[in-house]
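Problem: given the chain below (149 residues), write out its structure.
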Amino acid sequence: MGTPIPPVPRPPRRGSPSLSARLVHGAIVAGVLVFFILAGVVGERAGRPAWAVPERKVLYLLLFAVTVGMFAAATFFAGRLPPRGAEPEDVWWRRALPRVVLVWALVEGPTLLGVVAYLLTRDFRTLIATLAGLVLFFHFSPGRLVGRP
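Solution.
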């Protein structure tokens, strides 16, 4: 007759690990974005021009060191996730979800720390950690983690 029609992928069913992973990732990113937006609103009202912000070299160096260290740890642990192979997505998520949540937590820490530092200092330069964290959240999104070799 012809070639058989491949089965249509089913959407994740309720209670599936892949759906849980997407919900956890979405909740973490949404929380960071809410804090980021609130910091923007508060900072806009009480912000200072760039030339008026005092130099806080220790704060910048500490924030940089913590950010680089935690982002490096997240990348290290993401590189050690088990390969998916030919197993179904839900089976892979059941095995990998605890490690993936660790990766997301390592990204979330400096991301929120940048927002908190901004709220305390009103120095927009501390938001670099937050923006870098949001980029890493995209890089470590559930769809990209499942599809990696």
